[in-house]
Amino acid sequence: MMRQIIYVVILFFIIPNSVYSQSIPDIEKLLEANDIESSEDYYEDMVSSLIHLSTQPINLNSAGFDSLKMLFFLSDAQIDNLLDFRKKHGPFTHPNELLLVTGISQQDLSNIKPFIRIGTYVPEKFSRYHFSQEILARLKTTRPKQAGYKKYSREAFLYEKDYLAKKQTRFQGPPWGTLLKYKISNRQGWQGGLTLENDAGENYFTKNQKTGFDFFSAHVCYTPDKIIQRVIIGDYKLQWGQGLLAWSGYSSGKSTSTLSNEKSGNGIAPYTSTDENRYLRGIATRLHPTRTITTEIFVSYKKTDGNLTDLDTLTPEAVQTATLYTTGYHRNLSECEKKHVLKEFTTGLSTRLNHRYFRIGIQLLHYNFSPALTKGKATYQQYNETGDQRTLVSVDYKTGGYHFYLFGETARSDNGTWATVNGLRYSGIPKLALCALYRRYDKGYRSHYNGGFAEYSNTTNEEGVYLGFESTPFRNLKINIYCDRFRFFSPRYQATIPGKGKEIVGDVTFNRSRWDCSFHFKHEDKPEDDKTGEKLQSVSRVKQEYRFQFTYSICERLKSRTRTSYTRYVKKEKQEGGYLFYQDLMYSSLQTSLKAQFRFAYFDTDSYNTRIYAYENNVLYGYSFPALYDRGIRSYLNLNWKPFTLITLYLKAGLTYYPDKSTISSSLTQVNDNKLFDLSFQIRIKL
């Protein structure tokens, strides 16, 4: 099978192709606007979508809410105002007319310009058999070597069992990670993709990596745009409703863009990311039998990582269960034993009615893990997913009128539990928009694939009310504020006693032609266990963050960015603090053939509790959002060079220095040094 794939790839390479260039947007502003801090999969999903839109821009005069939502830069209220303006004044004749729309600034227009168009899209003149191709290769490593790479001899151990235990945990592969991506598409609606990835420490061409790489993903997608709108064979992702049943990839939620809570999914779509868990494998199709009805059907079967537990011999029949293993690491013998021990079968059906004044859909999802998952022994795990013949159904809706917009989804599981989320948005007041969102997820409600609006990622055991406010009192000034109050019905991790909490976030941004500044504030109050006394009790844990940023264009090619962040942590008598200061210099040549970013950062926090996240520029599709804590210096240089039209080279080199430490990290990832060097090199060939 692998040999046949290689032959196909070679065949695609020898097909003659024309060349075209492609620009990549400023991803950092996108990430900061959406407060994405913890998901590489989300980042890859956004970058892939924006690259696609740069080659096939959205028509402002025909796009609906769902299409405009793909721009990421605009809030839901801004999209509402854009659609209302178009309905009242007619089609746009020039992109600059967007500045007449309430709430859209010059910066917003600059962000979305590469991805929008006016009128008919005229693609470049290629033959109908032209193939657009992309090849990407990446190498990533860190130095010094981690403890997991250390070699051991039998003579160093007194007992054989101790030697075998160390051998079981030693990393089997080289100390660098590799990624190979290949994409191909043509004007006839065909596209395909291949992803091969190894993390640092994972080996090649072993019995656990039969395809050569640890992670292998491939897909073929055909979009004839007729009754059968799309067919995908291979790996794909699913985005339905408001995410109560199934949602994979980028997900809007609580962020400084306070009015971006409504999800607008793409249904079934090819999977091109490197996350080894959040995808489906099999066949999926989208049907469009009438002008207003869309139906999606899929069947998926794949093997999933897990930890097999001991057989339960106390029951009449011996039953084996497992727990999920979601790190994706298979670096040593212990981790390789967890690879693909679970069988995961999933199928589902979605039907949507798209009326002029509303949209309503019904979704059905069924999945089964074999063996079933164990719930766990901890108190907070009593309602955990078992994955045993789970069936769920949901209804979602969207409607609006007179500047009011309603959306929501309600789901029921076969165990009798419910989940619902409903939102109301209003944008009828000039330069002001409001939203309210209510969600309630029963403590026993579970869907392995969900991704709904929630305080935590598993969309269960929660009730909350969210209120958001967005205002543009002046064209260059934007104010975003939200307050979210929530409570939990049963114990959670680090909170054995059910409790309630709140979160308040404010963001003020002011921009001018050559500079902009922003102030960000976040107050988070959650219940947590207090184990310092004789009796377990729940106390309030408060974390506050303050951030000021100033960006200045020194000249057309050079830009400066300065940021200061302070964080405060309070839990009973314990009070901790920390701060971060960094200075960025960003250079871009006039021909955009060379881009460079340099950062020098100093941070000092009392502990991990007061960690501060700071996004870093990286290679294309690369993800870097480290948590900085303790006392240290972080510096990096990121280069993007396009020596030829076909080829783009990327390089990122970073250094982290901890003056008060002699070791970094712990266990298998421990480094016996106070300095850590990281390097990423990538080449992208676009044909």
Question: What labels would you give this structure?
Answer:
two-stranded parallel sheet, 687 residues, disordered N terminus, 8 helices, 24-stranded antiparallel barrel, 11% helix, mainly beta
Fold topology:
Layout: H1 2-13, H2 27-34, H3 40-55, E1 58-59, H4 65-69, H5 76-89, H6 106-112, E2 116-117, E3 131-143, H7 160-169, E4 176-186, E5 190-198, E6 215-222, E7 228-239, E8 267-270, E9 280-287, E10 293-304, E11 306-308, E12 322-324, H8 333-336, E13 342-354, E14 358-370, E15 390-401, E16 404-413, E17 418-429, E18 432-441, E19 462-474, E20 477-487, E21 500-511, E22 515-530, E23 537-553, E24 558-571, E25 574-588, E26 594-605, E27 612-613, E28 627-628, E29 631-641, E30 647-657, E31 675-686
Parallel strand pairs: 1-2
Antiparallel strand pairs: 3-4, 3-31, 4-5, 5-6, 6-7, 7-8, 7-9, 9-10, 10-13, 11-12, 13-14, 14-15, 15-16, 16-17, 17-18, 18-19, 19-20, 20-21, 21-22, 22-23, 23-24, 24-25, 25-26, 26-29, 27-28, 29-30, 30-31
Largest sheet: 24 strands, antiparallel, barrel
Stretches where pLDDT is under 50 for at least 5 consecutive residues are 1-23
Q: Quick one: overall form?
A: globular
Strand percent estimate: 35-45%
What is the CATH architecture assignment of the domain at 27-117? Orthogonal Bundle
Protein name: Helix-hairpin-helix domain-containing protein
Pfam family, one: HHH_3
Organism: Butyricimonas faecalis
